[in-house]
Amino acid sequence: MSLRLTPITREQHLEFVGSRPSASHLQLPSWGEVKPDWRPESLGWLDGDRLVGAGLVLFRPLPGIGRSLAYLPEGPLLDWSAPDLEQRLTLLLTHLRARGAFGVKMGPPVVAHRWDAETVKAALADPDARRLSDVHATAHEPAAAALVDRLRRMGWRSPRADGADGFSAGQPRYVFQVPLAGRTLDEVRRGLNQQWRRNIKKAEKAGVKVVQGDRDDLPGFYELYVETAARDRFAPRPLAYFQRMWTALTAEDPGRMRLYLAHHEGDLLAAATMITVGEHVWYSYGASTGRKREVQPNNAIQWRMLSDAHERGAAVYDLRGITDTLDEADHLVGLLRFKVGTGGEAVEYVGEWDFPLNRLLYRAFELYMSRR
């Protein structure tokens, strides 16, 4: 049968996502509603009448010229080891060029390496270890190396490889995940390090209560989030972003997004959002106050989310991005230590890849985004 690429309906897109055990929430049709500055389009690869791939493309216009960057965050959803991968990606580039794209950025959801918690812990204690990428991985994925070679031969470029940061930081290349498949909840709890187990008990003894909230609780979450942003030195998103996310994702599936709130004696101390697609659960955004840290609300809220993910039959609980650096002077190392305490594993993906369709415009867009 002849392979072709065509726009697909929201229903077709969701049906394809539902046929897979896992797909990034950034590849859901609803995600396009969360990003008002980008124009979304659902695309599908068809082999005859059979849908064999799908992708959410977000178009970001370059001001004043009517041309756009085409971005597929953590996608598209393809068989990345398919013999006809080159044909599939050529169809994508042809379609996006016809749509006025001057460049394409995508993030194949393909794992390259894994480091278990003990390996990461040892690396953090090693004064000679500078970056996680320099530490011998506990698992290597041969399919990832083959994919990287194929992409390079096609002319795709990795910003990380050539020293460029691309139009933005993009999606994290390194994440931390807790495998849940085939494990009882008691086994998951025993996998936590001693400090985590101790902190969970402290929170329980202190009377920390973790409950699920709803859209009306987002302002409370946001107040803590702004405090967290100031403390951890990042630029916060506006409240409207989280309200759009809640509306879009829960309209698509009422259980897609959850909000958790940790209270102690009437005080809201921590809050976090959780997103579920198939067997994959993400800890999406977290926030906490500097007050009453001794009652350990962050450990309490994470344990509740882990427990709920396990109850829902998740295969993996994803704590999202971690730093590659092991330098103690980097303020993000503390977050890495916190996530390592879950007993999970650090995971490296093949990362995001660029294809400039018009190199001059692509470079101009990179400069524009770097100055925003």
UniProtKB/TrEMBL annotation:
The cross-references to SUPFAM superfamilies, in alphabetical order and at most eight, read: Acyl-CoA N-acyltransferases (Nat)
Q: Give one GO molecular function term.
A: aminoacyltransferase activity
Q: Indicate yes or no for the key word Cell wall biogenesis/degradation.
A: yes
InterPro entries, per the entry: Acyl_CoA_acyltransferase, FEMABX, PG_Glycine_Bridge_Synth
Coiled-coil region(s): none
Q: Does the keyword Acyltransferase apply?
A: yes
- Family, as annotated: Belongs to the FemABX family.
Q: What is this protein called?
A: Peptidoglycan bridge formation protein FemAB
Say which species the protein is native to.
Streptomyces sulfonofaciens
